[in-house]
Amino acid sequence: MTDATQHMPSASAPGKTFKSLTVQDERTKQRNAREARFRLYGIAAIGAGLVFLVILLSAILSNGLGAFQQTFVTISVPLDPAKLDKKGERNIEDIKKVSTFGYAPLIQNAMLAKVQELGLETPLVKGKDMKALLSASAPAQVRDYVIANPDKIGETVEFRLLTASRVDGYLKKRVTRESIERDKNIDAAHLDLVDALVPAGVIAKQFNMDFIFGADASESRAEQAGLGVSMLGSLFMMLVVLVLSLPIGVAASIYLEEFAPKNRWTDLIEVNISNLAAVPSIVFGILGLAVFIQFAHLPQSAPLVGGLVLTLMTLPTIIISTRASLKSVPHSIRDAALGIGASKMQSVFHHVLPLAMPGILTGTILGLAQALGETAPLLLIGMVGYIATNYPDGLASGFLDANSAMPAQIYEWAKRADPAYYERAWGGIIILLVFLLTMNIIAIILRRRFERRW
Amino acid sequence: MPVLWLFLIVLGLALLGYVAGRARALASAGGDRRRLHSLPNYYGTNVAMFVIVPAFAVLVVWLLVQPLIVDARIAALLPDTAVSDTSTVGLVMSDVRRVAEGLDLAVSTGAMSEAQTGALQPDDARAKLADLGVALGSDVTGDILAAAQSYRGQSATGNLLMTIAVLVMAGLGLFVAFRRSDKDYRARNTVESGMLAILIFAASVAVLTTIGIVFSLIFNTIEFFKLYPASEFFFALEWSPSFSGRGGGSTLGVLPLLWGTLYISLIALLVSVPIGLFAAVYLSEYASHKVRSFAKPLLEVLAGIPTIVYGLFALLTVGPLLVEVFGANTVGWMSGGTAVMTAGLVMGVMLIPFVSSLSDDIINAVPQSMRDGSYGLGATQSETIKQVVLPAALPGIVGAILLAASRAIGETMIVVLGAGAAASLSLNPFDAMTTVTAKIVSQLTGDADFASPEALVAFALGMTLFVITLGLNIFALYIVRKYREQYE
């Protein structure tokens, strides 16, 4: 304000007393308070967003890290020849005839022997009572070992066996004494025994490699379930997506950016791409079900079909980012190429495309990351409800045989009734996020390292 | 395998053509590449292209059309008695295909000779095939076995013809292009127009996808409306599919599902729009460069997290937490963890970065001169934002909110895991409700027969969803674009 305005009596407010400019009047105070409040809302909004992020990540970590640890019991099992190889000829066919039911009593008795050897007081005095402590997969593990090493029959071998998921849950505080009151699988006496066995070092939590690389297990054996097979399923799907969507996406972008004349057809394609990018992913699942499975009779639950559906879904993303990086290559490059006699096609493929490549790869990796986490379309083409227990044998089987995928497997675990599977689902999410994080970091590094600013 | 072999043979011929064509062109110029019209490699590529493109076109078309023709011919051969009242021609045909595949498997693994399959009796066919791991749903009748045999015969003839046709096309292409390879032949122009055709085809994939979506939705929706009255689908106030899987007794009204969808989306928007918008305003108007480069990527991490993670978060963390606060122990509004509120809150969190980054772009597009004008008149920063920037950006922000709404309506995993399974027309946000997307999943992943209205309704729901989201998207993009043009 100038001096003139200061000394001029205000016509609109006669009789109003004038104060010094350095003293804030009521209205200015209000306005400044409003300003401060508004600013605070903004900070609060960002804070809220960041708090949500922290809550989400800490929920994932606190619930999921447990899945990487599993409770094992270490016991020496005498491989009794009278039970495992009655004829005594060490004939592999005869040994294979003994089913897991034949192995279960051996392991249970070995467990009981261990308990008695330690002199622990317990009302559980029969071998069968130990069944509740051990995983249902333990006999199969011992049987596999015996079939692989038939010469060990008759010796006493130390095994590291999975405990039952209730025992694992007890050590991880998921199962409590109150929660097992109506549980038929385990009772308080077992938990007392577990409490005694832990200090003895017989039962211990250890890093669980099988969760990362193992196969899924049936509903009743949460302790055995792993993500390995569905990880392979995801890998094969991503291969399909990469092989199809990169060339098609790049070709489409080159056409639209470099060659397309401005006409109705081009407009139609452009509108189509921007709309496809916003179509709900479940609709792509319906498309996959109707076209690839109903019409083309491709096998259900196959990674190939999943890959095709995800390709269609990621194409718009890849096209949009590829076009942006083609657009950022300056025109002088094209003009120079044309000027020394290159054809239009040569200028694009020999000069523009290589310069745009880092941007294209970044966009493709981000597109793949999006496809990797996508679940909804996979549900419709049958990738849930399928228990992925077998590794694919060979490349063709990897693409064509029924499999699951990481997010579908997580969903499957979240749907199961046993709360032990929830921990697996959170753990699966940690692995999935590690993959996504890695892909994003690679994309960022590519961008930092190779992208040119013109 | 034969198709794979055929594929490899054609590729081999193409490679051969490449080398031969290149050599012939060079020879015609007497080894002096300056006298060629195009670079030598173009001559090779030209020949390879003439080998591959027609041969593969024939291969693809043949692979698509042959099953249709064979199916139609076999279905015509089937006597009326082969199709009983409880089944359809489609079901019988799938049995026929299954038997034929089983016999093929038997021959290829050596379990049966070709003569043995001919002499196979209907009575023991099922047991024989079961030995090979081919499970059949029902007993094999004589009609089906005979049809399967002629199916195999026709398929084999078709495959033979296909092999011949493909190889002839490849050979013809090789011959013609090789003859043409001459120093004056404009090989580069041919190759480049071929490449342009490939580029155009790739660009059309997007259009083909849309056409595929529309057709797969429309055909199955029409099929559904033949079995179930459209008026009831659109206006019935109840959703209660029967679980018998055989149809009958279901009420499939879309309204309760739409209500659930909109209710959840509304809550999601109530969470995400204020937070997202204020965050965008702060980041673009107030935040220092340092804060911005730190907070913006962190917020966008929320957008990069897969929806299955949010779904699990809703089911296992937010749901139980809400029950603790609003459940039977306190006010008793909420009976179970899955509820509109659970899904809505989590979806709101997911949409925050979506709203904030779109609004951020739009606010940044408002010209600085408008702000400066406002400051010049003595307005504070918040007054400028409220009275100048936001009104100017309003159309764009509305567009962003509409896009977020379309996201929320189409979101699947969060509602499948967090919203519940019972359709209801309740007003209580703590009730379990279900949505269009959740029902698409449950109707198509259940055991229902694929031709029953209970399964087909999913396509009608998908159509509804597609139309709503497409409408919202087009409208939002229109608004955003129109607004952008104003200031550019």
Describe this entry's structure for a reader.
The complex is a heterodimer of chains A (454) and B (488). Helices cover 62% and strands 5% of the residues of chain A. Chain A has 454 residues and is mainly alpha-helical. In chain A, helix 10 packs antiparallel against helix 15 and helix 14 (331-339) runs antiparallel to helix 15. Chain A is flat and about 90 Å long. Chain B has 488 residues and is an all-alpha fold. Chain B has 2 domains: 2-185, no CATH class; 239-487, MetI-like fold, CATH 1.10.3720.10. In chain B, 76% of the residues lie in helices and 1% in strands. The longest helix of chain B has 41 residues, at 187-227. The model of chain B has no long low-confidence stretch (mean pLDDT 85). Chains A and B meet through helix 2, helix 10, helix 11, helix 12 and helix 13 of A and helix 7, helix 9, helix 10, helix 11 and helix 12 of B.
Relevant terms:
heterodimer, A: 454 residues, mainly alpha, MetI-like fold, 2 domains, 3-stranded antiparallel sheet, 3 strands, 62% helix, flat, disordered N terminus, B: 488 residues, 17 helices, 2 strands
How would you sum up this structure in a few lines?
Chain A has 454 residues and is mostly helical. Chain A has helices at residues 3-7, 26-64, 81-84, 92-97, 100-117, 138-148, 165-171, 188-197, 209-213, 228-259, 264-276, 281-295, 303-327, 331-339, 344-373, 376-380, 395-400, 406-415, 420-450, and strands spanning 69-78, 156-162, 203-207. Chain B has helices at 2-28, 40-77, 89-109, 114-118, 122-131, 142-180, 187-227, 230-235, 255-286, 289-304, 307-326, 340-365, 368-376, 381-410, 413-418, 436-445, 453-487; strands at 239-240, 251-252.
